[in-house]
Design brief:
Length: 137
Amino acid sequence: MSNVAKFRDFLTSEKIYMNELNEDGTTFFRAEQKLKDGWKVLLVFAFNQDENVADLFCFNVAELKNPEKKQDVHTLLNEYNANFRYSKLYEENGTISIRYSYSIEGDIVPDLAFRKLIMLLETAQQVYPRLMEVIWS
């Protein structure tokens, strides 16, 4: 059974709903989640074509609309990235997101893989208040 099929079966057995999409040989699962204060993020678990690399994302953690705050936000992102071992934050076109990638050696362990995605959501919960503080200051 493929790693994608194992992950899909895990989601089904746990009654976790994620949209499954396939684009350019990449299979990914995605679902919107709300942070505690109501802000919506998009969680994505993507398999490469060979199903031996997983790229996990938490998109739209915050929006940076004021270009004058960009340097302060990047300083904060660098601070977080120096302190977080796995979750890496980045800003692209005014959207702040989180990424984590890892190599799948052999068969995927779906529960562990999903917990890594939840780690990104927890990171978003943790960094959101301080990001908003810097963006709104």
